[in-house]
Specification:
7-stranded parallel beta sheet, 3-stranded antiparallel beta sheet, alpha/beta, Rossmann fold
């Protein structure tokens, strides 16, 4: 739980691997621990829990902070539970089979993707019902057919665990987060614009990612108030997602255990297709 024990961080390479290697070469004699961290992240960009990096590289948190100040890595505070994965857990492992409800939901979304036209869905399922697996497989279907996808998650949920799960399925993943250095965000934005990312995952502003051939937008926990930006320019990411889906003939998949009144009403009145996961 946040606030219990020392702070925990995620560590993510914030520079191209070749630039990290070049910097490491220049640091080997005067800052060997920084060089070791850059070598490690150039091979495995992350995100990683910071204790793992400290152990693998034989360094201290101050070394990571120094590299973060230089813009080579992103050091983001996370909830301490974010890294509580079972030993041996593979975040990208595909379950052997889907439940009947998951299959039904996925078939409906995939059918809409095949039609290549705007269609909004509300996926209503309690925590642990398997919404994320439906997102992942729908995104896989979109990418396999030449499309690309945007995944919006509440900022507090954009943890290394979440990113790792999507990165395991989609190596060409761009990550957009307000805590990232401006240079890193710009590079991720450029990757998306150049078509070098199949999926963009991020908090509310990721809804504007310049992704070509956009065919699916996922808004996880669509009821979350953090999707609403109070400062100018004011917008609600869920509403922007729906508008963008309409303009780009993309499928919009809203997911929630406790749907917003607006979305639930739209589903009840037939404007959204309601899918349920028990």
């Amino acid at each position: 739980v946040s606030g219990s024990g020392p702070p925990r961080y995620s560590v993510l390479l914030a520079a191209p691997p070749e630039r990290a290697r070049a910097e490491a070469d220049g640091l080997r004699k005067r800052a060997v621990r920084q060089a070791r961290v850059l070598d490690f992240l150039a091979r495995e960009p992350g995100p990683h829990p910071h204790p793992l990096v400290l152990k693998r590289c034989g360094c201290t948190l101050d070394v990571l902070r120094a590299l973060a100040r230089k813009g080579f890595l992103l050091l983001s505070p996370v909830e301490t539970t974010a890294f509580d994965l079972p030993t041996g857990h593979d975040p990208g492992a595909t379950p052997a089979s889907l439940t009947a409800a998951q299959r039904e939901a996925l078939e409906a979304v995939n059918s809409a993707l095949d039609a290549r036209s705007f269609r909004p869905f509300l996926l209503h399922g309690v925590t642990g019902s398997g919404k994320t697996e439906v997102y992942l497989r729908a995104l896989s279907h979109a990418v396999a057919n030449g499309g690309r996808g945007i995944v919006l998650v509440p900022e507090i949920a954009l943890t290394p665990q979440t990113v790792a799960r999507f990165q395991a399925r989609f190596p060409r993943l761009a990550v957009l987060h307000s805590a990232m250095p401006a240079g890193y965000r710009r590079r991720q934005w450029e990757l998306a614009a150049a078509g070098k990312a199949d999926v963009v995952i991020g908090a509310r502003s990721a809804v504007f990612a310049p992704l070509p051939s956009l065919s699916l937008i996922v808004v996880d926990e669509e009821h979350e108030p953090s999707y609403k930006q109070e400062n100018p320019p004011r917008y609600h990411a869920r509403e922007v997602a729906l508008m963008r889906g309409r303009f780009e003939d993309a499928v919009v998949l809203l997911g929630s255990a406790t749907p917003s009144l607006e979305s639930y009403r739209n589903a009840r009145e037939g404007r959204f297709t309601l899918l349920r996961l028990p």
